[in-house]
């Protein structure tokens, strides 16, 4: 690097903050910074800004002799999108640089342009291509969601030797809601790879097709923990949505009476609605059971099971039942037993975080009493100093409010934010903790208020989308 470049080193962070696209383009083109990381960072910054006026220079940078510049340029094109970016990324699919090629595939998946479907199918089917590129192509095709990709993905699921490619093919077929994939996905429940079995079960749950019930029941005998849980979740999604059948009850009864492990029997027990082996507390009182159906009573008992996955599964089942189950889930959220209230909070977050649609919005409205309760927790939070500003109970309330996304929670969150900031400023401890690395718990090492800010930002973003 020359003396002039050292004396006049550009501040890329300031340039990005000011949206100085022209300045960043000059840095990327400059020969003075060829031996520094400035040019590759400038390419990344242009991608973050998303300004289409940078497409020309980023396309030019794809041929740069510096591999880091090329990779960051291809990633930036994927973030900006547009016709010219798609054309450049398609051409990059055959590049000899693996990281460069992987970035092009990711970019095409993120952009979602249908022109990329056939080139990505060619990557998927090219046996001379590295397996990770074909795995990424499977993922990108699922994200684009074009019908032309269904048959190639089914073929990959059936015959591909690499388990990573099979795994992503199974995942993508579920994302695409490809109903003709029920049979191959059911067959994949027997795959030698537990990851493939796990994604096959998850996708069958997303398809909600009754034809998958019997293969999923058989797959409950799977010895792999995560694959087994995915199978149980899929069965729960299908049966709760379609209504419980006598055949399902009979099959689950056989598993419960067999020599299967306690964990397998518990999964069958949860799906069947029966009480698990070791409740952590006595069942709910008879007074509370008045007017509640037998099925709901069983789910409420399972909320007190010793196994966390069973508790969360029961809470998710209450959510899935809609009008009848949501009020009971809100009661569980208020339960003095932390394991019960935590399961209810987790179920809400798992179902609502980053999801959209009429069904989800209806559920959010039904959870308005929960918002009122959680808001009171936030309003009454006692602010402490030290490694944790407040206890995990309050942090869980913030997280749950963030998942529900009701704007009614914003005033309470902002009030808590102001109180935490005031306490930090009064004690003068935040820099000490950042420097010594003693911050732990819900906060980041850079900002003790980040947790609350994220909740407020997410709620506001959801409102802006409406």
Give a quick summary of the entry:
The protein has 466 residues and is mainly alpha-helical.
Structure description:
- By secondary structure, the protein is mainly alpha-helical.
- Helix 11 runs antiparallel to helix 12.
- About 10% of the residues have low confidence.
What is the general shape? flat
Q: For the record, give the distance between the C-alpha atoms at the N and C termini, rounded to a whole number.
A: 50 Å
User: How many strand elements?
Assistant: 0
% residues in beta strands? under 5%
Properties at a glance:
466 residues, mainly alpha, 0% strand, Leucine-rich Repeat Variant, flat
What is the element layout, followed by pairings?
Layout: H1 3-7, H2 12-17, H3 21-29, H4 38-49, H5 55-61, H6 67-80, H7 83-91, H8 98-111, H9 117-125, H10 131-144, H11 150-159, H12 163-175, H13 182-187, H14 194-207, H15 213-219, H16 225-242, H17 246-257, H18 262-272, H19 286-289, H20 294-302, H21 308-320, H22 326-333, H23 338-352, H24 358-366, H25 368-379, H26 392-404, H27 410-427, H28 430-436, H29 450-465
Helix pairs in contact: 3-4, 4-6, 5-6, 6-7, 6-8, 8-10, 9-10, 10-12, 11-12, 12-14, 14-16, 15-16, 16-18, 16-21, 17-18, 20-21, 21-22, 21-23, 22-23, 23-26, 25-26, 25-27, 26-29, 27-29
């Amino acid at each position: 690097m020359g003396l002039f470049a050292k004396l006049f080193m550009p501040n890329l962070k300031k340039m990005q903050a000011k949206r100085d696209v022209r300045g960043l383009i000059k840095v990327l083109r400059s020969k003075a910074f060829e031996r520094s990381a400035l040019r590759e960072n400038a390419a990344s910054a242009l991608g973050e800004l998303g300004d289409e006026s940078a497409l020309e220079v980023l396309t030019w940078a794809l041929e740069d002799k510096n591999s880091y510049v090329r990779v960051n340029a291809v990633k930036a094109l994927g973030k900006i999108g547009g016709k010219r970016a798609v054309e450049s990324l398609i051409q990059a699919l055959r590049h000899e640089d693996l990281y460069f090629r992987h970035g092009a595939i990711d970019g095409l998946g993120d952009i979602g342009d249908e022109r990329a479907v056939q080139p990505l199918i060619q990557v998927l089917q090219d046996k001379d291509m590295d397996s990770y590129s074909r795995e990424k192509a499977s993922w990108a095709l699922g994200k684009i969601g074009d019908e032309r990709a269904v048959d190639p993905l089914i073929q990959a699921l059936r015959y591909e030797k690499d388990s990573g490619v099979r795994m992503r093919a199974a995942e993508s077929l579920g994302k695409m809601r490809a109903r003709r994939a029920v049979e191959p996905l059911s067959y994949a429940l027997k795959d030698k790879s537990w990851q493939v079995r796990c994604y096959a079960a998850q996708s069958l749950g997303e398809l909600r097709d009754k034809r998958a019930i019997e293969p999923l029941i058989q797959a409950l005998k799977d010895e792999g923990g995560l694959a087994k849980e995915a199978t149980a979740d899929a069965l729960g999604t299908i049966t709760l949505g379609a209504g419980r059948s006598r055949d399902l009850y009979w099959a689950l009864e056989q598993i419960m009476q067999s020599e299967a492990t306690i964990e397998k029997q518990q999964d069958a027990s949860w799906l069947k609605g029966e009480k698990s082996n070791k409740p952590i507390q006595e069942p709910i009182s008879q007074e509370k059971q008045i007017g509640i159906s037998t099925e709901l009573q069983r789910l409420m008992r399972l909320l007190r099971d010793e196994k966390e996955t069973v508790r969360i599964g029961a809470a998710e089942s209450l959510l899935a039942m809609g009008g009848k189950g949501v009020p009971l889930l809100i009661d569980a959220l208020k339960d003095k037993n932390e394991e019960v209230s935590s399961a209810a909070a987790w179920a809400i977050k798992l179902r609502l975080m980053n999801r959209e649609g009429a069904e989800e919005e209806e559920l959010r409205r039904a959870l308005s009493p929960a918002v009122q309760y959680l808001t009171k927790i936030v309003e009454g939070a006692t602010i402490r100093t030290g490694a944790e500003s407040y206890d995990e109970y309050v942090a869980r309330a913030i997280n749950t409010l963030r998942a529900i996304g009701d704007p009614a929670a914003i005033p309470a969150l902002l009030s808590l934010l102001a109180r935490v900031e005031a306490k930090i400023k009064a004690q003068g401890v935040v820099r000490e903790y950042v420097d010594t690395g003693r911050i732990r718990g819900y906060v980041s090492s850079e900002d003790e208020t980040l947790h609350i800010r994220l909740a407020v930002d997410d709620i506001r973003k959801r409102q802006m989308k409406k």
